[in-house]
């Protein structure tokens, strides 16, 4: 898969990008906080269909400067989950727990 570089500058540009990605149904994505290479990161699990398990989707690494998020790098590589000690999927029970 080729890299898909994108650049967003400022809160409004980032907000518009995130809004464009909002899921089709509530709870389609589950986020699990972690650290990767010493930096804060998020494991993103995605549900393909309502009621199904959440599958490994991407790891998002965060660059923090001055206590604020300055950079996000998304790795849409589900194989990374195992290297980080994460499961390939979250169970349906865990996915629906509140």
The averaged pLDDT comes out at 85
Helix content: 10-25%
Going by helix content, strand content and strand pairing, the class is alpha+beta
Q: What distance separates the N and C termini?
A: 35 Å
Q: Which sequence of SSEs, written as H and E, runs from N to C? A: HEEEEHEH
Question: What spatial form do the alpha-carbon principal axes imply?
Answer: globular
Q: How many strand segments?
A: 5
The largest pleated sheet is described as: 5 strands, antiparallel
- The low-pLDDT segments are none
Radius of gyration: 14 Å
Total helical elements: 3
Number of domains: 1
Residue share in β-strands? 35-45%
Structure write-up:
- The chain has helices at residues 11-20, 80-83, 92-96, and strands spanning 29-36, 39-47, 54-65, 68-75, 89-90.
- By secondary structure, the protein is an alpha+beta fold.
- The protein has one domain (26-96).
- Strands 1, 2, 3, 4 and 5 form a 5-stranded antiparallel beta sheet that branches.
- The longest helix has 10 residues, at 11-20.
- The relative contact order is 0.16.
- The model has no long low-confidence stretch (mean pLDDT 85).
Overview in brief:
This protein is α+β, with helices and mostly antiparallel strands and 98 residues long.
């Amino acid at each position: 898969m080729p890299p898909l570089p994108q650049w967003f500058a400022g809160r409004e540009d980032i907000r518009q990008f995130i809004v464009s990605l909002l899921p089709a149904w509530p709870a389609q994505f589950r986020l699990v906080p972690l650290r990767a290479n010493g930096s804060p990161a998020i494991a993103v699990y995605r549900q393909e269909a309502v009621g199904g398990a959440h599958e490994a989707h991407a790891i998002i690494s965060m660059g923090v400067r001055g206590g604020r998020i300055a950079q996000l790098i998304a790795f849409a590589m589900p194989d990374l989950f195992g290297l980080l000690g994460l499961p390939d999927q979250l169970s349906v029970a865990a996915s629906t727990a509140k």
